[in-house]
User: Fold these one by one.
Assistant:
Number 1:
Amino acid sequence: MAFSGFKRRRRPTPLILGLGVAAIAALLAWTAGLFLFTAMSPEKVEDNTTVTDAIVVLTGGSGRMETGLALLEKEKARRLFVSGVYRGVDVARLLELSERAPRELRCCVELGHSAGDTAGNAQETAAWMKVQGFTSLRIVTASYHMPRSLLEFRAALPETTLIPHPVFPEHVKRKRWWAWPGTSSLFIGEYSKYLVAWTRIQFSRMFGLRTKEST
């Protein structure tokens, strides 16, 4: 005997089931991609010996400028370009902040002030490389930032030889990175930016668009 107030529970519609399955699949794919992305982040410097025309340091993290200057001192390149420098900072001041003698390296260091993000770094550096007539470049940035940097630089400088030179910040814990809240949030944020950059570059190629170089 049925009760008058009882309502039969409705089963989920095929559309709702399909959306649920798609959401779960997307989450699994995103998670797998995140782990693949962390594996792309270099664990060491693979090439310490090749001499390039130039070195570029992408500002925004500890150890990058010091590494770039050390490479320049070892004559691993003819010039050092620092991209994304705050307005008002000159070469001498930058060398002083890096505890280097300005007289030794000042003539071989140039600063770029127009870049505000990684895509801007690539465009700014590409414009500078074109003026200089350089065809090879060593990129100095943090290891977790290197995959996105290479993505942007390969798009901006498709015919240039690029050599990654990662820096390894002490606060980034690569081993069991998911167990460290600071490192995990860093990787998640960087992975999300990588996906956005990859999508933008693919759409640009698909529709025949070219990234406008900074001047």
Note: The longest strand covers residues 52-58.
Number 2:
Amino acid sequence: MATAPLLLITGASRGIGAATARLAAAQGWEVAINYAHDEAAADAVADAVRALGQRALTLCADVADEGQVRAMFATLDRHARDGGGSLAGLVNNAGVVDVAARLDEMSGVRLQRMLAINVFGTLVCAREAVRRMSTRHGGTGGAIVNLSSAAARLGAPSQYVDYAAAKGAVDSFTVGLAREVAGEGVRVNAVRPGIIDTEIHASGGQPDRARRLAPTVPMQRPGSADEVAQAIAWLLSPAASYTTGAIVDVTGGR
């Protein structure tokens, strides 16, 4: 029996990342579940992947720390050498928001954290994935999906312009990297969620934000993590074999 391809999902212990892990397993991927803090939650996602008949491994790493990212990918290399799947997909899902504020109220520490996780982490993880998947480096190809946000289009004024700016950078990076590695067997796309009912709102001090903003969405409801996962899974799949450099809105029309 052939070994299943391996998918790494950053920030996969909850929300969109966890939903993507479960769906990917159902579609035949082995899943590497990255997390930064909540080991128990990551283990629960791994159990769900195994219940679907696929291998799972959990990897604790802060994507804002280059050394930890390199160590995480080294673990994936060992996994492949030991008979596991080789890396064929990356979902750059790890990200943070912060409390609503104007730019002139934001500290330098907040700004550094926002860019370190949402931008630097995305770039470094993608770099390591390209080094393994690109035919230029002896790989057999693969797919990268970056998580952006509708905030990149809307700007998030008086809420979190820092987050919006970080996701705007992710959009630009997606298009540039897609064109850079298009001839090397690696496809790079992004998904731009809108108001999605996940735990990330609570981390920004607004646990009811998704439900409160539902009337501003043309479809009159927040989306679910599972709905975003469907778009991610399509971009990872052979069904999207001629799609690269795309940014797919999953926003309910917002």
Note: Residues 6-250 form a domain with the Rossmann fold fold (CATH 3.40.50.720).
